[in-house]
Write a structure and sequence with these properties.
- The complex is a heterodimer of chains A (270) and B (140).
- In chain A, helix 2 packs antiparallel against helix 3, helix 3 (36-49) runs antiparallel to helix 4 (54-66) and helix 4 (54-66) runs antiparallel to helix 5 (70-83).
- The longest helix of chain A has 38 residues, at 232-269.
- With 270 residues, chain A is an alpha+beta fold.
- Helices cover 56% and strands 13% of the residues of chain A.
- Chain A has helices at 2-8, 20-32, 36-49, 54-66, 70-83, 88-100, 104-117, 122-130, 178-194, 232-269, and strands at residues 156-161, 166-170, 200-207, 210-216, 220-227.
- Chain B contains four helices and five strands.
- Chain B has helices at 3-8, 12-27, 55-75, 113-130, and strands at residues 32-38, 44-48, 81-88, 91-97, 102-107.
- Chain B is globular and about 35 Å long.
- The chains are: A alpha+beta (270), B alpha+beta (140).
- The interface between A and B is large, with 58 and 59 residues.
Chain lengths: 270, 140
Amino acid sequence: MTAVLGRLWRPAVSRRPETAAELLGQGDRLRRAGRFGEAAQLVVRGLSLDPASITGHLLAAYLHVARRTVEPAKQEFRWVLERDPSHPRALLGLARIALEEGDLEGGREALVRALRAYPDFPEAQALLDGLATRQPTPPPARPRLDRLRLPASARALLALGGDGAVIAARPEAAAGGGRRIARAARLAAAALKRAGLGALRRAIVEDAEEAHFLRADATLTLAVALPRTTHVTQGLLEINRLWAAAQHELAVARDAVAGATASASARRVS
Amino acid sequence: MSRLRLGLEMDGSSRGRQVHDIVKSVAHLSAVRGALLVSPDGFVIAAEVPPTIALEPLAALAATLGRDLEVGASKLGGGAFQTALFSADDGTLYLAASRIGFVVALAEPQANFQAIRGALEEAVTLIDSGWAPAPAGNAT
């Protein structure tokens, strides 16, 4: 793992003898300034002097995460945890990687372990809050949105219930993306809350190919994937139109359920 | 000389100052409450946010959200994640991906969406130009 880091950033020539602690301390300072390449050089040198340094391996893990190289980062975090099973930063690091990989349970477990060892750990608590899910809605109460149509220019459309479960997907194959959208929406909602901005209402996520427009409240999240060239105003109009259609259909379904319940009650009385 | 060119000419220590300047310039936009640059591991590289906001938890969430969007974009084959905004009743959180991390801006509800998006894109361009991978053989 350290060798991988060494290949990515070749060590610079040392001008004077230095201890591993000095090198790692300087590496950490550079990392904190976002100077990851220079930091990695020092961490590699520090670990060559003290291969068993937990700080060194933790820094190596951070630098791999910064470079978005997940596997070596995971190995470095695990190396730390083998020596210190309740190391909070290593647990947090592994939790974040688990979340990236869609392993919610793994992420939650690592965060709970970190908080058990260190109850005053705001980052871990914030992430755990971001993973909180509502109780699943029982299937009979979960409405269907049969009339919701995929707009002509859209690649996919997804509707999620308040518990994050997919209640409509167009095309059907798009349902696989439901979990990711639910997770991103939960994380965004937690970040908005932490920033004191309130509950998530709308989102626009742009990548190189597509623009994803989202609208949400406590009971429904609706997301549509449109071409990246879609003007923001057009995208917002589209998601608002879909939102109104979905809300109308949900209201009709609620009325039908209420009507059926009233009829059943009336039959029981008579 | 353009800011972009200045970014290209930065040496290591100047780049540290540069990111603080970039974050400050975003934070001082009209109707923006604060801004930060957070590395993909959740560490705050630079921040200019009101003292009422607990920085580390917000950074942890922003970095995790940013990585989730990056990984999601690549898995769905949609191309690299670029920018996102998440709006609520009392404001909007903007997020943009750069080479060294995520630029986050917290804005008032009435903030100009295009102006902030443009500023974030410029910030990312500046950061990315300053942190471009070195040619083969150079350690950085």
